[in-house]
Design a protein that fits this description.
With 234 residues, the chain is an alpha/beta fold. It contains six helices and seven strands. β5, α4 and β6 form a beta-alpha-beta unit. The protein starts with 6 loop residues before the first strand and ends in an 11-residue tail after the last helix.
Length: 234
């Protein structure tokens, strides 16, 4: 789809990747950009329309869908993470909390806005995922599992929404220089670079964007031919 003259909604848009999406959408000529945040007063970006939107609150999602019935692009960006493995004492509670935001909220938003996208010509869903969709070393165990589930959800939505001509794009990346990764001493990509690559891919009609070199390397390893000494699936 084309960004120019589109009407976009970005969740979790008061900082980080979400804020970078809002700014780049405006720069590319989006006619209107709704930004969702639990506290709309924290949205300081000029030129956007702030919505009170806690993606875990069904009433907020329904109100956002009613207020933004002209949307042609939904960016499901809101997400949370917490360090820790699955054998930690609080791992079940942590997993439920993270899945609520990173999986169920994406499902909730997609269900609410799919009819709106259809009515407005198809449009697109862009789901912000992660390299952690494919690998889980245990440091961010529940987060990685939730992103795997969200990747599966994204693939299913692409199939379900194809008949109404809604493009569904999965955005994968490694570490991005945001508040979420402040404590990680690793190479990071800027949110602005990630977002530019994501929107370039959207406008090119892609299903998936691998937004940095590390992500590309990991995905290439996943799709490499199986070595001859390993069992082959008939």
């Amino acid at each position: 789809m084309k960004i120019e003259n589109s009407v976009a909604l970005v969740t979790g848009a008061n900082r980080g990747i979400g804020l970078a999406f809002a700014r780049e959408l405006l720069a590319r000529g989006a006619r209107k950009v709704y930004v969702g945040a639990r506290n709309p007063e924290t949205v300081t970006q000029a030129g956007v329309q702030a919505l009170r939107l806690d993606v875990n609150n069904p009433e907020d999602v329904a109100a956002a869908a009613a207020a933004a019935s002209d949307v042609t692009l939904v960016v499901n960006n809101a997400g949370i993470a917490q360090a820790g493995g699955f054998l930690a004492d609080d791992s079940e509670d942590t997993a439920r909390r993270i899945f609520e935001t990173n999986f169920f909220a994406v499902l909730r938003m997609s269900k609410a806005f799919a009819p709106i996208l259809k009515a407005n010509g198809g449009g697109a869903l862009l789901n912000v995922l992660s390299i952690a969709s494919w690998v889980n070393g245990g440091e961010l165990a529940a987060y990685s599992a939730s992103k795997s589930a969200a990747w599966s959800l994204t693939n299913a939505l692409r199939s379900e929404l194809s008949a109404q001509k809604t493009q569904v794009l999965a955005l994968h990346m490694g570490y991005v220089d945001t508040d979420l990764t402040r404590g990680f001493d690793v190479p990071k990509t800027s949110p602005e670079d990630i977002v530019k690559r994501a929107l370039d891919g959207l406008e090119s009609g892609l299903d998936e964007v691998l937004a940095d070199e590390l992500t590309q390397q990991v995905k290439q390893g996943m799709t490499a031919p199986r070595p001859s000494y390993l069992p082959q699936v008939a």
